[in-house]
Amino acid sequence: MEIEGVIIFNADSGVPLYSRLKKNIDPSLFSSFVSAARHFSNELELGGLSSFSTDEKVIFMAENKETITALIAPKTPEFEETVEVASVLGEHFERNYEITQRPRNGAYSGFSIFVDQLLKEIEHPFLDRVARFVHEEYGGEISIKPRLMKRNGDEGVIDAMLSQANKGKYADMDKSESRMNMFCDSISFIRAIDGIADKIDLMDFADQTDKFGIRMMDGDEMEFKPYFPSRAIVVAQDYDPSAFEYLKGLPEKDGCKCLDGQNTVIDLWKWNEQHQPEKLS
User: Fold this and answer.
1) For 8-24, how does the pLDDT look when each residue is reduced to its tens digit (9 = 90+)?
2) Which of 113, 119, 66, 61 is nearest to 94 (CA)?
3) What's the topology of domain 5-123?
4) Domain extent listing, the chain
5) Confidence (pTM)
6) H or E segment at 38?
7) Would you list the DSSP string of 130-162?
């Protein structure tokens, strides 16, 4: 499901409180339009207005105690799911923010973090299920589709990243050394494949493990330090035999398969919708 816009406005005044829009839409003009549509719907005794559509878009609305949340989406059959998302956004907004008639600029900017995470989850349903499983299995904190720095200074995106930071472990180290070691030991990269994973998929994922990192001072120079994650976790619906041939050729350390030239342990899981995923390595 694709969401192209999120607008939360005061139910009484129609004043927009929060907006996130992919296209150049004026939040005040849009909220005035929605308020007018709701007013005419009530005046004509047509009942409450929960959604309406144009030739290309559908506007879904969820009314809470003090706010109305409107979502703009392409026309799809996913009506009930979209309305549920609008309700979740509105309820979370009301629980965490004071609703005012004259909101200050930036007063609700922190809400974007929740919106970003929720939209990533609904736009990538299989990845979201995998991320929840990895969190339950390994603990730590999961970031879906994080943007990471590459060696050339550009940004790249991986499916998900698991963080299990243990700052106390490196308390006696040099600050920069401690920071880098903490990243290496605490981070795992996650690849979710909603299909059959083969050798190429695993090789491409392995190549990502040393392409991302941070820039930090080493003496008088700024250097790129790869993360070299402690684990590379792959979760797929099934695996092609070539994937196991690739795995067989990898070196072992303490009984675990590791990526070439690294201490990164690679874990393969076969997904199961009804039961616990099966660990294959």
Assistant:
1) 988 888 888 998 887 77
2) 66
3) Beta-Lactamase (3.30.450)
4) 5-123, 125-279
5) 0.61
6) helix 27-43
7) HHHHHHHHH-SEEEES-EEEETTS-EEE-SEEE
37 SS3 class: helix
Q: Which CATH architecture has domain 125-279?
A: 3-Layer(aba) Sandwich (3.40)
Tell me how long the chain is.
281
pLDDT in tens, 143-199: 888 888 888 888 899 999 998 865 444 445 455 454 545 555 688 999 999 999 999
Cα Rg, the chain, nearest whole Å: 23
**What type of residue is 85?**
V
Q: Give the pairing of strands 231-239 and 265-270.
A: parallel
Higher pLDDT, 104 or 43: 104
Q: Is 274 exposed, middle or buried (0-12, 13-18, 19+ CB in 10 A)?
A: exposed
Instruction: Please report where in the chains the tokens 């695993």 appear, as a residue.
Output: 202
Which among 122, 138, 129, 153 has a CA at the least distance from the CA of 229? 138
